[in-house]
Design brief:
CATH superfamily: GroES chaperonin
Strand content: 35-45%
Order of helices and strands: EEEEEEEE
CATH topology: 10 Kd Chaperonin, Protein Cpn10, Chain O
Shape: elongated
Distance between the termini: 26 Å
Helix content: under 10%
């Protein structure tokens, strides 16, 4: 998958790319496209270190589709694929089931 291993409370996301052509066959220029705010979790850190030395684990699961806050995180490119590194608290919601169909993409 990827050789990026996020630290602490950081989550590695891969944005979901919208189609560049409408159903009617019109090609949309970059300036006309609304940026997507949905992504797939590709990797995650261990969690947030707490004052008592324990760690609060990250609740989203790898493979989950999530909605995240605009203008969050740091964009990186690894092996030609674009990713976004963001803090877990910038994830707003899990959308639908995880990619593998095994769960809801969220630990309680």
């Amino acid at each position: 998958m990827t050789n990026v291993r996020p630290l602490n409370n950081i989550v590695l996301l891969q944005r979901i790319v919208e189609d560049e052509v409408t159903e009617g066959g019109i090609i949309l220029p970059e300036s006309a496209k609304e940026p997507t705010r949905l992504a797939i979790v590709r990797a995650k850190g261990e969690g947030t270190p707490l004052p008592d030395g324990s760690v609060a684990p990250i609740k989203v699961e790898v493979g989950a589709t999530v909605a995240y806050v605009d203008f969050s995180g740091t964009e990186i490119t690894v092996d030609g694929t674009e990713y976004l590194l963001i803090e877990e608290n910038r994830i707003l919601a899990v959308v639908g089931d995880a990619d593998d169909g095994e769960g809801e993409g969220w630990k309680s």
